[in-house]
Amino acid sequence: MARKSLVGEVADDLLDRIVAGEFPPGALVPGELELSAQHEVSRMTVREAMKTLEAQRILSVQRGRGTFVNPVDRWNSLEALLRAAQAQVGNDAAAIQLIELRRMLETGASALAAPRMTEAYVAALRGHVAAMRAAHERGSLEEFVAADLAFHDTILEASGNVFLTAVFQPLHRVLEARRTETSKVAAIQEHAIRMHEAVLAALETRDSRSARDAMDAHMTQTLDDLVTYVQDQPAPGQSGQGLPAPAEGRDAVAS
Amino acid sequence: MARKSLVGEVADDLLDRIVAGEFPPGALVPGELELSAQHEVSRMTVREAMKTLEAQRILSVQRGRGTFVNPVDRWNSLEALLRAAQAQVGNDAAAIQLIELRRMLETGASALAAPRMTEAYVAALRGHVAAMRAAHERGSLEEFVAADLAFHDTILEASGNVFLTAVFQPLHRVLEARRTETSKVAAIQEHAIRMHEAVLAALETRDSRSARDAMDAHMTQTLDDLVTYVQDQPAPGQSGQGLPAPAEGRDAVAS
DNA sequence: TTTGGTAAGATGTCTGACATATCGTGACAC
DNA sequence: GTGTCACGATATGTCAGACATCTTACCAAA
Predict the structure, then answer these.
(1) What is the mean pLDDT of chain B?
(2) pLDDT tens by residue, B84-107
(3) Which of B28, B96, B121, B185 is packed most tightly, with the most Cβ within 10 A?
(4) Mean per-residue pLDDT for B135-153?
């Protein structure tokens, strides 16, 4: 394990410390020399690690002064943002905001994809739903989640919008973890299968409005499942750096 | 000018060459030694430049083999994607896909912002609309665009969703350039003012659905204006690396 | 034909050095 | 007492050269 490069390790560790709240936004991170001593690597290695974080606008380097942590809303990398969100265990605000964003993108993707559905896409979607059902009956959680994600990926691809794909991609990893959590409940799996079938049926009509509505219903169900089954677990409030307050969320984006 | 660091220059130039099609996806970019010779900088400088591009998933470095260009849909940085899109002059597909994405995010933001509108936000929005009207009468294109963008930024902020803000931020710069282009036409300025007033009125009702619809209408108007007034200019089709085919776009996302 | 070794070329990392921007501090002049 | 200037401390920016290690291609030997 831990096969990553030294640069990757240093960058990872530094980002961890940032999202853990050790270096809040605006704070000065340790200098290159200090970090190279802490990690027992050369200064060049630390510099390259910092460059990767700077490219994601997590840090801003000021020559002669030092390196500072940018405010979270300046971060360019959804991936890093998601990591920050996950670090705050039990932070409902982050989870809800995430679903809000996902709802926007997925409903939009469905609406775009509907008129562009080819037979190949329809067949692929049917296959994924069948895989979900099979995995459900076999009790294979992993395969269930994989088929679920594949279904959404296919829609994303069918939308034909590269920007959309680029924006959504970093969400993928987080969704996988989250779906694995929620899909442990059998009832949720059944919900999900029904909803996916409805989305597929709507897409087959090639009608944008129907596809959007079906996907929107699916997102609402996802949010409901999350609230009902998962967010009962105790949430040890961690300080972190505090993502802003939650929005209404529930039906705010619903059409 | 050219105040950026050497690393920035090298990274910029390499990205330019990539989006220009000199190194298509999957291609092997010149080695570190070769690039350091071309730019007359040290190998470390080239390495740090590559690290910034790698952090945006534009390049993937494989030890012992070389450095390769990732397919465009793997790129993590909307900013870089937008640059690639802009490099393809007259690429209507990219422009339309961009508006599609913007429509999803802005309508979603409006729906989220509506129930969270405070008097302060309303006052700020009123101020921006007033500024647009004043700039219109005074004939100040620059101020008009600034007020326009400020209006949308305020809504984004009011939505209270950090992820949304993070996703939208890179779009800002491109929108500024594009709005400056389209807003040159007086008629479009008048359209825009009317639409912004409608959005503001809908937000004041605190009703998500109304706010969403008003913003959606605004997006439709923006797209119409773009098609009607701007895309008449001759488009010298450039090869580039070809963003995927366009979607329906026009009313596919409309509610 | 297959296998194995070796060399070439690529990136990964280290060491050490100098350049240059920023800022605090103290000496100096007023 | 106060403003100004110079200098040093500290930070990042860049360079040079070296060695390590991984991948691949090539070639010779079984």
Answers:
(1) 83
(2) 877 765 567 777 888 889 999 999
(3) B96
(4) 91
Contact with chain B for residue A98, Cβ under 8 A? yes
| Chain B CB within 8 Å of residue A147 CB | no
d(CA B111, CA B117): 11
Share of chain B above pLDDT 90, in %: 49
Token match 């849909």: residue? B73
Q: Judge whether A52 and A99 are in contact, CB under 8 Å.
A: no
pLDDT, position A250? 39
Q: How far is CA A32 from CA A14, A37, A98, B6, B206, in A?
A: 12, 9, 34, 19, 49
**pTM recorded for the entire structure:** 0.76
**Would you say B210 and B114 are in contact if contact means Cβ atoms under 8 Å apart?**
yes
Contact B255, A255 (CB under 8 A): yes
CA distance A17 to A40: 17
The pLDDT, as a whole number, for residue B236 is 40
Residue carrying structure tokens 């997925």:
A106
Closest CA to B218 of B131, B148, B126: B148
More confident residue, B40 or A175: B40
Q: Which residues of B touch A62 (CB under 8 A)?
A: none
Touching A: B residues 183-222, CB under 8 Å: 208-209, 212
CA-wise closest residue to A29 among A57, A84, A59, A67: A67
List C-alpha distances in Å: A38 to A3, A9, A10: 20, 12, 10
Closest CA to B249 of A143, A160, A251: A160
Terminal Cα-to-Cα distance of chain B (whole angstroms): 47
Q: Over chain A, what is the mean pLDDT? A: 83
Task: Summarize pLDDT for A69-96 with one digit per residue, the tens.
Answer: 998 878 888 788 878 877 765 567 777 8
CA distance A121 to B53: 33
Q: Is A55 on the interface with B (CB under 8 A)?
A: yes
User: Exposed, middle or buried by CB within 10 Å (0-12, 13-18, 19+), for A243?
Assistant: buried
Is the Cβ–Cβ distance between A101 and A93 less than 8 Å?
A: no
Q: Which nucleotide is nearest to B4 (CA to C1')?
A: D13
